């Protein structure tokens, strides 16, 4: 299994997918980007605040955020230093936030709630909504499994505990009249799940892009789509300690605006953003094209409607025993302005 991330892997089969997962699962890949200290950018970002001495530690998954922001040109005049850390999934990213190893990072609604359930000192500072079919339950192409009820007694990986893959599996089982005890659940990191699914150790795999798109490109069949089940929500979560620092808070406000602009660019440059992501993640371009063609990613205001929606997700999770009962989301938000 290669430890190097290929620029353009030629193998679109499962061996290539496993090598991709190994590359993504490398220990924190810290990438540093230094923008210019233009006075106009600083004024726009934070009024009179001088951000030239600020280092904002940003966590992202599978190198996606940095790649899109660079391609969109929104990092060209950043008035602070950005230190990037790459993670294969939300669980280790949120653990880094909890340990104050990073300041801000992107994670889905389910893992964010799971972190709140463990009393992680973090807050939601921005939200976006992407395609709900980017999370799927997959089975091998020739599998006899044709419905969720066929999963009874089978081995299924929801990828990591508390992930959006876990949430999709729980809801799909519930809708089919099954309980988690009706299947053999195997929690695995994405790279391990990729290998186990490829080798036939798993009967089904509940996961998200890029892993879902890569598996489908290699022949896996979608048993359950996240459409109608998943919210499509992802958050920029920030560490409480970083939020208590006025300069870092100002830098985060500026970063959020650039983050949203990058998604706006990607929504109108689908093929170009797919090419950029393919290069950044070492994926075949048809995989990233499938990801970007699922639909746009748009900003979501941190308003009452979002709080109500997230509370419903929290209640569903509590019912499944994943987060403590009575978890209230109202206090989990922080406004940067």
TrEMBL record:
GO molecular function: ATPase-coupled transmembrane transporter activity
Signal as UniProt keyword: yes
Gene3D superfamilies from the UniProt entry: Periplasmic binding protein-like II
CC per GO annotation: membrane; periplasmic space
Location of the protein in the cell: Periplasm
Annotated Pfam families: NMT1
Limits of the Solute-binding protein family 3/N-terminal domain: 55-269
InterPro entries given in the database record: ABC_SsuA_sub-bd (IPR010067), Solute-binding_3/MltF_N (IPR001638), SsuA/THI5 (IPR015168)
Keyword ATP-binding attached: no
Assigned keywords, A-Z: Signal, Transport
Function: Part of a binding-protein-dependent transport system for aliphatic sulfonates. Putative binding protein.
Family: Belongs to the bacterial solute-binding protein SsuA/TauA family.
PANTHER family found in the cross-reference section: ABC TRANSPORTER SUBSTRATE-BINDING PROTEIN, ALIPHATIC SULFONATES-BINDING PROTEIN-RELATED
The protein's name in its UniProt record: Putative aliphatic sulfonates-binding protein
Source lineage: Bacteria, Bacillati, Actinomycetota, Actinomycetes, Kitasatosporales
């Amino acid at each position: 299994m290669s430890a190097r991330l290929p620029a353009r892997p030629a193998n679109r089969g499962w061996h290539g997918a496993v090598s991709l997962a190994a590359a993504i699962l490398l220990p924190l890949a810290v990438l540093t980007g230094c923008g210019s200290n233009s006075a106009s950018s600083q004024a726009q970002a934070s009024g009179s605040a001088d951000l030239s001495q600020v280092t904002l530690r940003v966590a992202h998954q599978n190198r996606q955020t940095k790649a899109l922001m660079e391609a969109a040109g929104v990092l060209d005049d950043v008035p602070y230093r950005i230190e990037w850390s790459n993670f294969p999934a939300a669980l280790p990213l949120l653990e880094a936030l909890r340990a104050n190893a990073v300041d801000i990072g992107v994670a889905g609604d389910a893992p964010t709630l799971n972190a709140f359930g463990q009393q992680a000192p973090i807050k939601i500072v921005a939200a976006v909504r992407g395609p709900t079919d980017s999370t799927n339950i997959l089975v091998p192409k020739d599998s006899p499994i044709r419905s969720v009820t066929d999963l009874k007694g089978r081995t299924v990986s929801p990828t990591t505990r508390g992930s959006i893959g876990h949430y999709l599996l729980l809801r799909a089982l519930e809708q089919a009249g099954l309980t988690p005890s009706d299947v053999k659940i195997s929690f695995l990191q994405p790279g391990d799940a990729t290998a186990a699914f490829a080798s036939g150790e798993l009967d089904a795999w509940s996961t998200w892009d890029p892993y879902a798109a890569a598996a489908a490109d290699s022949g896996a069949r979608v048993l359950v789509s996240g459409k109608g089940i998943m919210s499509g929500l992802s958050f920029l979560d920030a560490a409480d300690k970083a939020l208590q620092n006025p300069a870092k808070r100002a830098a985060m406000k500026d970063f959020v605006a650039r983050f949203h602009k990058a998604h706006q660019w990607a929504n109108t440059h689908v093929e170009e953003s797919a090419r950029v992501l393919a290069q950044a993640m070492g994926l075949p371009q048809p995989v990233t094209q499938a990801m970007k063609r699922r639909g746009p990613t748009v900003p979501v205001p941190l308003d009452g409607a979002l709080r109500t929606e997230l509370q419903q997700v929290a209640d569903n999770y509590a019912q499944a025993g994943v987060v403590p009962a009575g978890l209230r989301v109202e206090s989990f938000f922080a406004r940067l302005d």
